[in-house]
Amino acid sequence: MLYDNEDDILGAASIIAEQVDEYRTLLVDKTIGSQIKEYRPSVILLALSSVQKSIELYTEIITDQSLDYPHHSILLCKNRESGAAFRCCIKGLFDNYFVYQPLYEKFRLKMIVHNGLLISQSTSQYIGFQDEQLESLGEDLEHLIDEGGACKHSLLNSIADCKKSLATPSTKDPENSVSEQLLQKINETHIEPLLAELEGNIKTGLDNMINQLLVKQVGIKELEARVAQMNKTAIPDQQSILEALSNTANTLTNEKPAKDRVKILVVEDNQLYRDMLVNILKKESFDVDEAADGLSALKKIKSKQYALVLMDLFMPNLDGINTTKQIKAINGNKSLPVIALTGNKNKDLIKTWAEQGLKGYILKPSTKKEILEAVNKVLN
What we know:
Layout: E1 2-3, H1 6-19, E2 26-27, H2 32-39, E3 43-47, H3 51-63, E4 72-78, H4 82-90, E5 96-101, H5 106-167, H6 177-231, H7 238-245, H8 250-253, E6 263-267, H9 271-283, E7 287-291, H10 294-303, E8 308-312, H11 320-330, E9 338-342, H12 347-354, E10 358-363, H13 368-379
Parallel strand pairs: 1-2, 1-3, 3-4, 4-5, 6-7, 6-8, 8-9, 9-10
Helix pairs in contact: 1-5, 4-7, 5-6, 10-11
């Protein structure tokens, strides 16, 4: 565990010390790089006073190759920086994170460290296999392939010599002609077919064996490449760091929050009040359209799908109550929630409007809290 303030890590350090025998804490100073090289920890917990300082230290010890081997990195952070820590892990800067201030879930911390040890140990075994055996396996396979090829050529040459010997007459003595003819017949009917079959079997069998060895050789080379990739410790990308430390989580997952898909129409003839409403809703990540009167609102509703309409009661061209009636006609009596914007406290008017599909109302002037409470109540 790397730290810069001992008081910050007392609780977390005592929990891990109970769990892991080979555990130590290192105060971050000028010798931190050499200490990491000496101890070569398989799991590293960064517990500096801020996420940014942890990123800077981690980048430094990787860049100067103090940390140049496979390991498991865990970022410890304060609760207020948990969002940044989460984004760091999503971006691949660290393998995991844990909120250690305040320290509520000690068993989760133990599990994170336990999993980190398991992962790093399996990785080290994989790397050890490569260091001790991978190179000799490749050499052995290459030797077997060469020997197989030499054996094939030797056997085929022997068969060829045998065929040549059988085809050459041993004598021209007439007394032995009958024996020669008999031997020739035996050669043609028995020995030559057997030699041809043997030759074919040798070619097929040794070729298959050599091909299998070649496949194994390719597999060894692929394994070497994979292990070499595992050995690499990438320096954190600067763009990923900037995005991780950003207050906007949207840059992380490229996913829009649910509210980005909620489309709201604000219908208000008072431009100042309309602008105020639009700004409040946009800051909450709603997708907001606006209109200055009822007729303009109806045109927008015909061409777009809205989840909610905020509408003033008294407007030129078409007032709020009659615009709401037209909305029902456009949507085929399907419900489109409408919230009234009005300074008029006349209960009869509000009741008449409610009969046309009014779902709530906001009395002007209104605060940001009142506006958002009314909007969320209807949407939820």
